[in-house]
Amino acid sequence: MLIGQISDTHIRPKGQLYHGVVDSNRMLAQAIAHLHGLDRRPDLVLLTGDLVDKGHPDEYAMARELLAELTIPYLVIPGNHDHRDAFRAAFADHAWLPAAGPLHFCVDTHPVRIVALDSTVPGAHHGVLDEAGLDWLRATLAADRAKPTLVVLHHPPFASGIPYMDGYALRAPERLAQVIGAFDNVERVLCGHVHRVMLRRWAGTVVCSCPSTTTEIALRLQPDARPASFMAPPACMLHLWSAAEGMVSHLSTIGDFEGPFDFA
Known about the structure:
This protein is α/β, with parallel strands linked by helices. The protein has six helices and 13 strands. A hairpin with a 5-residue loop joins strand 4 (about 105) and strand 5. Helix 4 (about 130-140) packs parallel to helix 6. The chain is globular and about 45 Å long. The relative contact order is 0.17.
């Protein structure tokens, strides 16, 4: 199974730019075209939060218009820039979303099971998973301890080292680690939020964060670093799973570049 992951698309109303600078709508369209043009088309696409920028219904309408071009099945979770109720209304035709409460769900119709967590806090930018959410996750994972599983949430469950992002991190990640660490069939924990690729061994598995299709948050590690972003090449992640090899994750840069050349 090949799973595409795109994140932090920050869709704006038609004709508006992200922060007045970036055409995030065009960049999502380019990401979709990139996935369609791969030599092996993904079987499923995961969008790991911050689908839109302000949580407004007109942004979700634009997102649905753009995603209508995606011919691959996709699943979406919210991020801190999303609005839970507007998100739920925009995807009311997606049966995998619960009708009330946090937008946790499990999709078990593929060779890899997808267990998605809503780590958002309405009105805030940090992430939290309450006891009810952790209990739901524990019961969902316990339902099948053998099938390869991805756990997906927006906020990375560890500090990035970028001070102005870590103020908006997932709170009490050790509680999530205690749940996930009890199951050895979790192939990856996938997230977004930091607009960068990050990898960490954590809770007996590997956490992988996805870059944004819009901007790259600057890698500034000094404690007094000021927030900054760059118009770096956008990218997505591709997670290839097989029974023989397990899961291998690749960065796939979006855009046109010189090549191909006849050497490896």
